[in-house]
What we know:
The chain has 564 residues and is α/β, with parallel strands linked by helices. Helix content is 41%, strand content 9%. Strands 2-12-9-1-8-4-5 form a seven-stranded mixed beta sheet, sandwiched between helices. Helix 1 (28-43) packs across helix 3 and helix 1 packs parallel to helix 4.
Amino acid sequence: MPLFSRRPSATAPFALGLAGGPARGGSPARLIFLATFWMVALGNWPLWEQLARLPELANWRGVAFGLAFAVIIGGGIALLLALLAWRFTLKPALTLFLLAAAFGAYFMHTYGVVIDRSMMVNTLSTDSREVRDLLSWRMALVVGVLGLLPAVAVWRRRLAWPGWPRQLLRNLGLALLSLALAVGALMLVFQDFASVMRNHTQLRYLINPLNSFYALATLVWEPGKRERGPVQPLSEDAHLPALPPGAKPPLVVLVLGETARADHFALNGYPRPTTPELEKLGVASLRNVWSCGTNTAASVPCMFSPLSRGDFENRKTDTEGLADVLQRAGYAVLWIDNQAGGCKGVCQRVPTVRYHELNAPGLCGDGECFDEVMLHGLQARIDQLPAERRARGVVVFMHQMGSHGPAYYKRTPPQFKRFMPECASNALQQCGRQEVVNAFDNTILYTDHFLASVIGWLQQHEDHWAPAMSYASDHGESLGENGLYLHGLPYGIAPDEQKRPAWITWLSPGFQAETGITTACVQAKQDEEFSHDNYFHSMLGLLGVQTRVHEAPLDIFASCRKPG
């Protein structure tokens, strides 16, 4: 039976040898040793499971490697704790380590995720609404047994503290011993260790709780490598050509999807009827698109940047993005966000409607709304934008809740629960895989309806505007393949399911006539390989923005636009 299905033992707090002895003073070093043993043995259970599955370690040599690996991890943990072994810091530090190990073990085992910098960004940007989707009795049980109970035992333990000079010597001794053990164990299995770490890079992100602390450190360090100061302007030369006499200004909705993987859209060949409404509307769907990241915090700023994925990761400065350039060119820009996580900074300088400002009868409840709410009162919101900008054209960004997991079942109204039974739990591993897929497919079915509703709204304005819509999701999602759920694995080791987002375009007859960009031309590109590297430049091309930053080779619409 898996570790996380067991009932908490009544003797769990005694496992560290800590309870029942608050009357006599104990050694800080012994407390560190016991807590380290607990974290290495139980807090790293997901790592030991992964190691056990490796065929090259399925022998006695593998057992020896596992024991040495445990000593290496224990040495690293004890080394850090030795530096914090002071009267007023040790117990808080142990509590932090134990809780970090407990939460890390739960999420890594339950969803198959790993903990790296991007996952830490997601964690720190999670709001209370998203936290509710993750809470479960299973999580409470695991964190309680692995983290809270031993933390309580730590605080109950009375320690004997010598004067600070002697304690300094003891801390240095413990740190050197820990380092020596870790280095010694590493040297004994160095050949195997180097091979395993090279061939199975995901394992380094499972070393618990050191993975969390390393991720936090890189989160602080990475921005420090870039120049400090305000966000730098982008495309200061951006402008719009004059509209020809009698031409209608563009009215374009750019929908930023959430967690929608392309291979679950019937438009792209998926055997289930997940896109019945879009199939009737003459849209163009790109089937071979690769994301800039595997989570929203990584993908959205990257796809709104003119930089490629690699250049964005190594950028020296932070600059404005697509929304800023469109506004600078002269468009009336509006951002509507149905996500509590927000726009990840890309909408900070344009008019924005936050999720808590959205409300409509029948579409909102329990602190969140279905995506159709973004159409509610849209015309009134557009009318509030500057008239001189509206005369040049309007661009509305809509950031979906989309297929945000793990509570997929919350993202769809009852009438769109076509694929049943669906997983009605946020603990996806407790549902059958088909139930998880059903719940996810229902979110795609609702996204189909939402996008069709956006197109329907745009069609109502063809008398005075030249409407168009482009939908692009930020990344994909794992739905239980190989035991993985959700998203957020480091890009180099993430499966394709997390890196294949959907990208759909609808162009009204008026928009096609004025720009020369035809639906047929875009449809002809449906199997070509594209990525989020193309997004910024393609949106500038679609909207006719002229700027030196625009790179025509990355603009998927460039070959379709009429010259002049």
